[in-house]
Amino acid sequence: MANSGDHTNNSGPRVLRPLTDLGSRAAASTLRPFGGVLNAAAGAGMTLERRAVDRVLSSDELERVLTAAIDSIQVQAALINALSSDAAKRIIDGLFDSGLIDRFLERLLASDALWHMIDEIAASPAVTAAISQQGLGFAGQTADEVRDRSRKADDWVERTARRLIHRQPRPLPIGPDPSM
Amino acid sequence: MISLPGSAAGATPAVTAPEAGVPYPGLVTRAISFAMDAVIINLVAIIVGVGAGLILSLLHHLPSVVKAILAAIGTVAYILWLVGYFVVFWSTTGQTPGARVMQIKVETLDGDPIKPKRALIRWVGVLLASLPLFLGFLPVLYDEKRRAFQDRFAGTVVINAPAMSMVEARRARKREQYLAAKRPPPGETGA
Asked: In which element (H, E) is residue B105 found?
């Protein structure tokens, strides 16, 4: 059935092909200016769309809407519900069961950059100072106490010694300020 | 707080010392510092001496001359260690370990770090001050800058040197920058 139809259709165009080609060429040449117009219109539309998107992204209104959405109690409640749902737990379980985290950690530990970063942090003055402070905490407290008492004893011994020889208490000298 | 000169009453003081009291440590503080140094020096000397004695105990039949020479070498080494300890610490950081713990420091009268030669002179001064039952330390009680014999002998002074934390150091730097910015440029003395 199809073959007979095809045969009928094939026999027709063979006769009419010059006419159809002529018609196609005529239609194409007629529609060519419209194609240019349509392309220009499409380009203009895309430009407009880009401008609109840029304007929306750079607008304060978008920021306000996003801030309002994040601050919204409903959104926060929905997020909390989503995070505390069984589905979220299953996703997390699946993530760990898949071995993706293990793989990530393996790669991370094998990375030179990570150890370089750790070395940098460990050698930073802030960290070394913190470790030193922590390690010498007790000794430091004891030394502080000894210093405090020894300074008081200095003054007491000096006052007593000056009193013994009937000498005026020492005036406060103006000397170098070691903290400066 | 000690208000330094330039701070009028009622006005914001130009600079204030962070610690109450005088900026020079007294007799007790210096004695504790000295005692700590003595502990360190003798502890090291005892450890080294015991080690050397143990090694020498393996050699049973040493002639008495050799023993005398070894004793002389040990004495010289101890004196060198004793002198070197103070001279090196005073001429490098200005603080021996004992002084570091007590947060005191030796410097010249101008506030400069002392050089090895001056440190050696000061050590001789310490020796001379200690010989008459430490009487050379008594001037600390009466001197305006709490200087002992060895300080006068070597032209040095011992000051308090509180260790600053990183935050305090940063704060001090910022305060200095602030004061430097507020200070009028030279030549501009005001209306």
From this structure: strand B104-108
